[in-house]
Write a structure and sequence with these properties.
There is one protein chain. This protein is mainly alpha-helical and 232 residues long. The chain has 2 domains: 1-90, no CATH class; 126-232, Alpha Horseshoe (Serine Threonine Protein Phosphatase 5, Tetratricopeptide repeat), CATH 1.25.40. Helices cover 49% and strands 2% of the residues. The chain is built from 12 helices and 2 strands; from the N terminus they run αααββααααααααα. The chain has helices spanning 4-8, 16-25, 29-38, 59-68, 74-86, 103-109, 113-121, 136-142, 146-155, 170-181, 186-198, 222-229; strands spanning 47-48, 56-57. The chain has a two-stranded antiparallel ribbon. Helix 4 packs antiparallel against helix 5.
């Protein structure tokens, strides 16, 4: 494995953002530590997804991509995230820009549950509206990540907040994700719905098309229908 000085001096790496990406991809903790110590600005410098997709995102966001693509484990990603935070990384990825995902939203939508909780532990903003104007709670619900949903609820995330594009609640996103996303096991979505309902989610709030979560259900969705009727 290349050390930090080897990578920084390697002619095949054309920019600092690709250098730090290589260190992350190789889980070179010592290299990351050295690079951030030498150049603290790298803690908040955008990193391309890869050499083909050069769209940049904050390092704390890119760690979520690595977890999703299974380049490294949650534990390894958290270890790297700690290094970035120790060297001044902004937990929200910089300025909060409407419809632009924070690292927390990225974690909630990329199955990086451990990172999401780690970011919450370090003060990540709860209610920011990212892609489609959805909050971290919307995205965790859509992806059926009940552990993250439960923690967000515990932290005081707004249960009935409407997203921007679809004017829908996190509960609607959870049911819609179950019926249309097929991203996670069904029982994980059921757990998300139960968590939201127990926290006081309003099942009667319609989305932009006038549909409530009940309108998404088919005849065979008996378990979910009974769950939605709870606390009516």
């Amino acid at each position: 494995m290349l050390s930090c000085p080897d990578i920084i001096n390697c002619a095949s790496y054309k920019s600092s953002d690709m250098q730090i990406k290589s260190l992350i991809d190789n889980k070179d903790y010592q290299g990351i530590q050295q690079a951030l110590s030498d150049h603290p600005a790298l803690a908040n410098e955008g990193i391309p997804y890869d050499e083909v997709n050069t769209t940049k995102a904050h390092p704390l966001h890119r760690l979520c991509d690595g977890v999703f693509s299974k380049k490294y484990t949650e534990e390894e990603s958290i270890k790297m995230a700690k290094l970035f935070l120790e060297h001044g990384a902004n937990i929200n990825g910089g300025e909060l820009i409407l419809k632009q995902d924070t690292p927390l939203i990225a974690a909630a939508s990329l199955f990086a549950d451990g990172l999401a909780i780690f970011y919450l532990d370090n003060g990540a903003a709860l209610g920011h509206a990212g892609c489609h104007g959805g909050t971290a709670l919307h995205w965790a619900a859509w992806c059926g990540r009940n552990k993250v949903v439960a923690r967000l609820v515990q932290e005081g995330a707004e249960i009935n907040k409407l997203c921007i594009d679809f004017k829908a609640t996190p509960l609607f996103w959870a049911v819609h994700g179950l019926k249309n996303g097929h991203i996670t096991e069904g029982q994980d979505y059921i757990a998300c719905v139960r968590t939201l309902i127990e926290a006081g989610a309003d099942k009667t709030i319609p989305n932009i098309d006038g549909n409530t979560p009940f309108d998404l259900l088919a005849r065979e969705d008996e378990e979910l229908r009974e769950l939605l009727k709870t606390f009516q």
